Records
---
Amino acid sequence: MTLPVPLAEYHERVEKCQKSAESEGLDALLAISRSPDRSGHVRYLSNYYNPISYNPSTNISLGLGYSAVLISKDQNPVLVAGFPPEESAQEVAVSDVRVFPFMSNFAASISEVVKSRALEHSTIGIAGLDVLSAQAYVELVDRLPSARLKNANHIVEDQRMIKSENEIVLLRETGKLADSAVDSAIETCRDGKRECELAGRIAKELLDNKAERVFWIDVKSGPRLRYPITWPMASNRRMKKGDLIFFDIGAADKNGYLLDVSRTFVIGKPDREQRELLALTYDMSREVIHACRPGVKANELITFAREYVRKETKGRNLRIKPDIESISYAGHGLGFEIERPQLTTEHTEELKENMILSPEPGITVPDLGAAVFEENIVVTEKGGKLLTKNIHKIW
């Protein structure tokens, strides 16, 4: 796994973290990640990915799946790795690599590295408290009784939200992988096929095209699509003609960047109500994407979506009656994982140029079903620019 961006860009990321930490009165910043689902901080700063997934902590192995990068003033960063990077052919952007044994105590390893840098009496910001188990945190506090630990997740998160030109180039390729998965799903979905079979075909397409990991494949059909969230993600139900079909795909590409796309369509010829639902949802999603410009607040996208549906429901003389108030979620940021900003009614964070978003406002019609068309976009002055492009208007 070679460096996806130039080495100099990693150095710039570390330097920005150093400056941000210093401006907030911190002597050091400890960025923590956990595989497989929360690898972003460490990967962003070093390109390291722990090949062993997180496991419940025990007194013997407190920290399976964890890794960290310690950044301090006027010193090179330290990568605390669960396995030697070379064992999984990983090229990392940090020269000082400390490997803690497979079945060992992550908190003990971190405290040793902190002491080796004479930081045990310092103020240390932690980016990744939300991924560190309470057990590991308590032990870290016990092992560093004179250190002052503070929540500093925002320092790395703020940087990661704005993508560099190099990252945007990579994410265009991620979009192509998403498109191929969508193509495969549309071509494969047939009358009589089970939801789980469709999910398996999508997973094969992703892995055949060098996806690093598949995180979720959600397939719902017919009556299971009458509710926004149902379980299991893909059931044994056989899909049939006339069914509304929804699928949502989340996977990491070969560079670790996440794709998150969804589509809704009908097997066979849709009836009038289904066509109205699909067309209205698709058009609404385009309006929201166009509104994704710098300065727009996250929760304003919800307002745009609701107002558009309210206006079009009357203007088009539609037969369907959408539940407009149920439009309360419009998506999220995207990078190495699902990131800020969250596009909800509660979040007022402003969009900024070169954010990568995954807009997914959906429409629910009681007794008919729900529809979503989720894309991956980059925020520009002219509105959201699509990174995913394959749309099948089969209605």
---
Amino acid sequence: MEIIYPVGSDASTIGITAQKRTLRVIQGQTQATPTSGYLDPSLRTETGGIRAPLSTDKAGVKSTGAAAVSPFTRSANAFTYEGSLPPGLVLVKTAGENYAIADGGAEEGGTAVFGLLGQWLGGPWDGVKQNNQISAWQGPDSQYQVVAPAFNTEEIATKAAEMANGKKVPLYVAPDGRLTAKEPSKVQTVIAELIEYTPAYIQVRLVI
């Protein structure tokens, strides 16, 4: 459980709120690494808030209200829950040590998939505020639970049934930034392997 204090409040405020972590490390003592990085400037608004990437974002173009140009063209809005970007979304590395929310498209310009977002960003569950530092969980063979709705259910339930026959189920990044089992139409980085599926969560083994 992650406790989030509303904007302008502190630990002395009675009206705190709480939200489940949607990314939980299951096996990571030696495998998982919460690599430190920074929000891509395009994820900030001109007034300093956090903005969720939109389907209208275009490479090299500054979207209305954005603090900086988008690093690549998106094909869909990034997934949000009650206005917040949840832990477990797939990150790509942009310039320097900056990260943006992946969308799995060719327009990412060759930027490498780098890991899974470790914090809530923006909206009522924002855990970074004015601090731009975030973590990207990565590490081959590290295992995680990704809690609904922070994964894309498309194809996952169907593909999960194939595991009973010993078949591996690779996971990719959906256009909204969540993990999905839907096979892409173009060659795309395999991010993780599905270990367990339930409607409430999936357990995955990273391969990056």
---
Amino acid sequence: MATEGASLSQSIKSLASLLKSMNHLVPGVAVVGGLVMIAVAYFAIHTGVMMGFTALVVFIVAVAVYAGTSNYGEAALALVAGLLPVFTVSWDAGTFSVFVAVWAGFTILVFLISSVRLASSREDLYTQAALSLTSPDDYLSMGAAIKAVAEAADCLLDPIERAEVIRIFAYRKLPVRSMGSALEAVDKLSTISRVEPKRVASFVSDVYRVFDPADEDVAAALLDRLYSLIRTSPAAPQEYFEAFDQSRRLILSEKLDSEVFFDALGRGLAAGIPPTEVYEYMLSELA
């Protein structure tokens, strides 16, 4: 129940974040969308409860089809195909009851099946992460520990994204005590840079291994520094992460001090060196 509550809370946060983003991009779009939904529901229901409810269900399904496919033609076809039977069927209590029962049963079963698949995928990711950190005899307790860390993190990543990021941390042998703040750092940097969380997770895990922040304040300061490095770089965030990946061996092997490494990395990108050639540039510069 605690896991379900956490997932619901994360979903609500994600929905709130989406609505805020939409309203920021197009001021008032969330309000207009809500008013349209209310108006459609009002006029649909007032044409007759049974027919109106059925038409409203068709409308919602068509919107869901468009949201999932971004294909107007497919969504419009679903709307028209759904409305035609609504206006041709003579609705009475029997036919309406059958429609509601079948539609509700289908929706509930689909929701349950998708929930089981989601939970199964998430558990598999945590199992893989736990097995990479400990022996097969102790993976259950380790899995419970890293799952608790992931669910306690204050971020808007969905459950699967959290598990995928945690698995990357485990593969990179990041200590469990650092995974919570590192997960929050991935969420913030991914949101700022518009780079997928898994890509950012590889970068954050390496940086955490180098600096090993001891507490939340140190982790927050490290996040500010990472954001500053990415923001001031004359390259796109994706290019910065790629350049870091190409040259990460220099800092992970402690051949270069962190200050020297990030300074040289920034100079290479500023000089127009492609990310794939940054490693050779840094070697030549520091020879």
---
Amino acid sequence: MPTVCDFALPKNVGDGEQKTSMLMPANQRKKAFDLTLPSGARREDRSILSFLLHTTDADNLQFQFEIGGHTHTYTVNSDTMRVVQEILPPGVLNVAQLDHNSVEFKPLSGDGVLGISDVILWFQRTI
């Protein structure tokens, strides 16, 4: 069966930026982007997470994203707006429940405002 590259966009947010800040209480800092995958999505292959990062007044602003048990941490020390692409290891996609995939972003330490938008999950699937 042929394999193709496919992508999923968040179903719970629009195209606008989702912002969080170290000024918010810790339990309110998380920003989740829920994704639904099509049938045939391949858990055994690597995936790519892409997002637009926008920080303001960042001073040692440390944040992380988590998807399927995989986390990655970043530290930013300046105002920035750039696209980030991260290769994810095999096994992060939930193919048993295709509508139960989510990527969560949260600031961990430092100061500043963290803005995330344009989240795209690229993956392989069998057609």
